[in-house]
Amino acid sequence: MRLRLAYSPCPNDTYAFHAMVHGLVDCEGLSFETLLTDVEELNKGAASSKYDVCKLSYHAYFHVNDKYVMLRSGSALGYGNGPLLVSPSGSRAFDNDGHPLSDTIANNTVLIPGDYTTAALLLKIAFPKISKTKAVLFSSIENELLAGKAMSGVLIHETRFTYRDRGLSLIADLGEQWQAISGLPIPLGGIAVSRELGRDTALKIGRILKRSILYAAGNPQASGDYVRLHAREMDPLVLEKHIKMFVNDYTTEIGEIGENAVNALFEHTLKIYPELKRNNNLFI
């Protein structure tokens, strides 16, 4: 069986999927037609059931959990790895002592890396007064802020490692704010399978992906060329930091704490989108 598999070009995804898509682990008779694209494009594609298997922001997953089920392997979930709300250093977002001005920030447009990213959801939870956001490609947010096109923006992926060098300052770590509210790790994204494929195929894909992640952990240099081929930030130290931050024990197996974190985030999401429906089986 050949399946449509879509994930982001970010280092944690290419690291995790490398062995699976290159036939380095047992794929149990499955093969994959791959598409690598920005996470918000993945979120939008899943809304129209475009993929058999795909990376999804947990925010987006909550909107399509009737169509997809999340695998227990493959999640980007952990502590201290959340999105960052930033502004150019010395901007009107800060007072003379460098403290963020919440009302000023809330009254100006905030750049976000997609309406259905978990970054956008965590911004709503942490700053409910912010009402004006603009969705742009995550990798362009730094440049748009420095060009004066917006006062503040939310950084994800590689850009969270480079913003200080670019002349930006931190307003708030949205992940830390979530951890303060919940006491749980931050559920950023995971790997979802179309419910139309059925339970047996979904479980098979989960086994294959787990093998691929374990292969990457055991052979950390094997995926290097593939990771660099698709990465937006080429500094090897940044790539290494990115993978270490977003690939962890929760990625191998989400576990009870990870599931609790996802459930808690869903409960907060329902307060913002009360019309959402929740499938009883969020994971397979």
List keywords for this structure.
284 residues, alpha/beta, D-Maltodextrin-Binding Protein, domain 2, 2 domains, 5-stranded mixed β-sheet, 12 helices, 11 strands, globular
Return the average pLDDT rounded to an integer.
Answer: 95
* Topology pattern, helix = H, strand = E: EHEHEHEEEHEHEHEEHEHHHHH
Q: Helical region count?
A: 12
Oligomer: single chain
Description:
This protein has 284 residues and is α/β, with parallel strands linked by helices. The chain contains twelve helices and eleven strands. It has helices spanning 11-21, 39-47, 58-64, 102-106, 118-126, 141-146, 174-182, 199-218, 224-230, 236-246, 249-252, 255-272, and strands spanning 2-7, 31-36, 53-57, 68-70, 76-78, 84-88, 110-112, 133-135, 152-155, 168-173, 186-194. Helix 5 crosses helix 7 (174-182).
Task: Give a topology summary.
Layout: E1 2-7, H1 11-21, E2 31-36, H2 39-47, E3 53-57, H3 58-64, E4 68-70, E5 76-78, E6 84-88, H4 102-106, E7 110-112, H5 118-126, E8 133-135, H6 141-146, E9 152-155, E10 168-173, H7 174-182, E11 186-194, H8 199-218, H9 224-230, H10 236-246, H11 249-252, H12 255-272
Parallel strand pairs: 1-2, 1-3, 7-8, 7-9
Antiparallel strand pairs: 3-11, 4-11, 5-11, 6-9, 6-10
Helix pairs in contact: 1-8, 1-9, 2-3, 5-7
Task: Summarize this entry quickly.
With 284 residues, this protein is α/β, with parallel strands linked by helices.
